[in-house]
Amino acid sequence: MAIKTIAIIGTGDMGSAVGRVLREQGYRIITDPDGRSDTSRELARQAGFENLDGLEAVVSAADLFLSILPPAAAGALAGRVAAALRSSGEDHLIYADCNAVSPAGVRRIAAQLEGVCAGFVDAGIVGPPPGKSPQPTRFYVSGPDAGCMAELHGKGLDVRPLGADIGRASALKMAYASLNKGTIALRTAVLMAAQRLGVGRELQEELQYSQAAAYEQMCRSVPFLGAVARRWEGEMHEIEDTFRAAGITGDFHAAAASIYSILADSELGGETRGEQPQHRDLEAAIDIFLRTAPPASGDQS
User: Fold this and answer.
1) Which phi-psi region, left, alpha or beta, contains residue 156 (left: φ > 0; alpha: ψ -120 to 50)?
2) Which candidate among 94, 156, 194, 206 keeps its CA 20 to 30 Å from the CA of 262?
3) What are the pLDDT digits (tens) for 154-183?
4) How many other CB atoms are found less than 10 A from the CB of residue 237?
């Protein structure tokens, strides 16, 4: 199938950047702005998206639909797209769920669209948005219809097939994020605990001495987690479910979700990437996060 028009919902940091690089490759990029935040609308405008009026118009015009949302919103969007396809009578659309959901979750999403679209792709995005790294953003894809995504390989994206089984791409995404974002949550928890225990500055000095690379990563990432914390909280719960289904404890990532919940509820939790300062002191950010954390028990025996 020749792909000419690609629909993308939503248009946050990742979705807008993916749309921009694909538009630069000559694709028509469309979206439905209804229900999106002012920030998402502006990112889509800057990336050159074309706004259409409603999902029915979007599914009628698009050859390929990329769902790039917080995991909690993935199922609802699939249901709305299925309803729009039934209403419009269109059956040519390929739907790619590119969200950080568990393998079981993506199979439930695929079931919602069964019989109403031309194909379904399980896609897991790994890496920062296009343009944020020298390496291209990786799209791991699986499912019997995943071959249609091969056309996008080398066009600002690195598309990597994982076979015909729906759930394999999501499994890889879950495993990768469990290490990447799970490690960031652990580092944040360590810094918060040390600060509460009165040894925050001393720990930072030790980290600079003995784990300089890890400390640099903390300084670059932890103070700016407020902008992504709510989305990553949901992602940790998806990883928790994935691990439990595999017979591995989900407790690590349930705890990580609780850390991201604290950060999302803090005064930095309402930030967007564009609003954040170029530099924020690590110790000051930890102090802000601790204002939202449960109080200390006082038992340090």
Assistant:
1) left
2) 206
3) 999 999 999 999 999 999 999 999 999 999
4) 19
